[in-house]
What we know:
alpha+beta; Translation Initiation Factor IF3; Alpha-Beta Plaits; 6-stranded antiparallel β-sheet; 4 helices
Amino acid sequence: MNLEKNNNGLNAGLFLAVGLVISSMILGWSYVSKKSGEEAVTVTGSARKRIKSDLVVWSAGISSQSAKLADAYSQLSANVPRIKQYLVSKGIAENQMTVSSISSTTQYSRDTNGNETTEITGYTLRQEVEVRSSDVDRIAQIAREATELINQGILLESSPPKYFYTALGDLKVEMLGEAAKDAKTRAEKIAASTGNRVGTLRSAKMGVMQITGADSQDVSDSGISDTSSIDKDVTAVVNISFAVE
């Protein structure tokens, strides 16, 4: 009777031991599967490059004002060629200039309360001369010196030049590639610190491109596209997730 009880106890213990082993195997496989199939590291990579603008667009407004429309027109017609001649003398080719159509504003007198009346007192006419050139440094200097024309009796309003980089499309592709390399390097260092290694790419998201003046720290959620600086910094950002093995 005691022998039968001992055999039953031995069998029960054996079944329990086998069950624990099998359960451990199942749990171990589940953990490995989760680790290799679901764990990932997400990092942000960036790249920055200094560029110089290769296109400048600069415009200057010329105005004339007179009590008679014909006189205002005569003044404007005389001043535009003088401005073009001035720019040519500074080394700007005439085919780099564009002259806009004439816009006109009628001036009215005001009563004692400051309200406009129907009495015409004069006319103001205006034209724009726009310069587009790849000679960025020369145009930047001319834009600063163009106020010399005011001393010649020409009403000139010089706008700040706008500077562009025409190969920006190709540069963006290059910069995103560099940012992706930076992201992978960061991910590899993080994985190595925990005894793992980076696996396949899970997902990638491109951030907005920041084009700022040189050494600027400005950033924007919608991106910055600076046109006020000749020298610019282009920054690309990507957010990438890698599997961890």
